[in-house]
UniProtKB/TrEMBL annotation:
Pfam families assigned: HAD_2
GO cellular component, one term: cytosol
InterPro entries, sorted: HAD-like_hydrolase_sf, HAD-like_sf, HAD-SF_hydro_IA, HAD_2, HAD_sf, PGP-like_dom2
One MF annotation (Gene Ontology) recorded for this entry: phosphoglycolate phosphatase activity
One of the GO BP terms on file: DNA repair
Chain ranges passing through the membrane: none
Protein name: Predicted phosphatases
Length: 209
């Protein structure tokens, strides 16, 4: 079946920003005197900041979010870059007439800043952020909204991400789902979810188109 659209998660998939995210959470936890427990925070990356703030800070969730945004945006431009090969694969897909989009649990301001800084915003036909939906990944709503805006059927689309939340959202939305191995999830963890494919290098995406 012909692929008409390829949708991507942002952090950990297109953009190498996970170390910045973890560093920012550590700063927030320290300022709010919240114990940092092993991988608990890392396992939640991919969910909206609001949900993570509520989980760890309770009624202080809004302050948690405010602190996070302050630290994150201060160092964003210094620690945000594309993964190797990202720009080239977007150029190839666009040249083939495939619609492209970003579906992320990041907020609108942070998403726009990352897309502008890295120069990939111009490739995207649709961008869906945490501020555009009422239910978030792993719920399929963000993907379904993106597909509706593109006018493309799920069966003719691919969703590419790096976390379990991405794989589950794609499966529930009915897209083919690919997991990259250079982001948040390990190859073993992602393989257990049975995505349609695992990608170790962007060049491998072509065989699924």
């Amino acid at each position: 079946m012909k692929t008409e659209a390829v949708l991507f998660d942002l952090d950990g998939t297109l953009v190498d920003s996970l170390q910045l995210i973890i560093k920012t959470y550590r700063l927030v936890f320290a300022e709010m005197n919240i114990p940092w427990g092993d991988d608990e925070v890392v396992k939640m990356i991919g969910l909206p900041l609001k949900d993570i703030g509520r989980h760890f800070a309770g009624s202080q969730g809004p302050f948690f979010e405010e602190l996070y945004q302050r630290h994150y945006l201060r160092e964003h431009d210094l620690h945000t870059r594309l993964f190797p090969g990202t720009l080239k694969i977007l150029e190839k897909l666009k040249a083939c007439g495939i619609k492209l989009g970003v579906v992320t649990s990041k907020g609108r301001a942070g998403t726009d800043r990352a897309l502008t800084l890295t120069g990939i915003g111009s490739f995207m036909d649709v961008v869906v952020t945490a501020h555009d939906v009422s239910r978030h990944k792993p719920d399929p709503e963000p993907l379904l909204i993106a597909l509706k805006r593109l006018g493309t059927a799920a069966a003719r689309s691919i969703y590419v991400g790096d976390s379990k939340f991405d794989v589950l959202a794609g499966q529930r939305a009915g897209t083919r789902t690919l997991a990259v191995t250079w982001g948040l999830g390990t190859r073993e963890e992602l393989a257990q979810l049975k995505p349609d494919g695992l990608i170790d290098r962007w060049e491998e995406l072509a065989k699924y188109i």
